[in-house]
Design brief:
By secondary structure, the chain is an alpha/beta fold. The chain contains 11 helices and 11 strands.
Length: 290
Amino acid sequence: MKVLVTGATGTVGSELVNELLQRGAQVRALVRKQPKAGTFPGAVEIAIGDLTDPVSVAEALQGVDKLFLLNGNVPDELTQGLTAYGLAKKTGLKHVTYLSVFKSDEFLDVPHFAAKAMIEEVIRVGGMPYTILRPGYFVQNERRLEPVLNGMGVYPIPAGNQGWAVVDVRDIAVVATKSLTEAGHQGKTYDLVSSEMLTGPGAAATWSKVLGKKIAYAGHGDFDAFEAQLRSSGMPSWVAYDIRAMFQGYVDRGFSNTEEQAARFAALLGHQPRTYSSYAAELAKEWAAA
């Protein structure tokens, strides 16, 4: 059984490639350019292409059985997702696993949530066997915060006080692999969320503990300033707006999960999901060693 993995060099895709290989699946990775030596294990087939180029995607789909569909936060995310799905269906693939986002249909004012919600609906009615994965906020996003945490002593993400659903991408990869290699996942939509949610004050307390220094929470009162800061850091203006709309939506309307959702995820994994605080402890040790 051979799986085409899109987004294969990214945070989720790279973990998934390794999980699939461990399960005995054959893997073909769709990448924009020839990867550097050592990027993938030698068993991985490389397909050069881009989700904006239907011809290259159609070629990459030839000879595979299933598709893991992940497309990034880009202006034409909807077009890219629907193109890949349509070509997979035309090719006659046996299954598609689509990486969406938790509560995609509750944040339709957030551009990339709206795109994912529409792609979900097309997949549900499209007729090809599918699994939809809805992960929370990636704990791996915190890796990029090292200069601010260690340098300024501030937790800068406007996470609010209600609690955000989070997930470790290693757990996403496990469930994605199961959906592609085991029976029983057809037509299912899974919420991928940990039992421990993220808050701004809670994150500051966690980082204070694992770093052994006082970390302050920057707060969540001025999203105009937050968006401006994202733009000033070099982020494209449309991305800055998208991220601002997402975080403000989380704070205003909530992005929390229930105990039942976390328990269902644990049952699917076969173990308790990794937590925000456990990943923070991992990062703190890694940063200290470096």
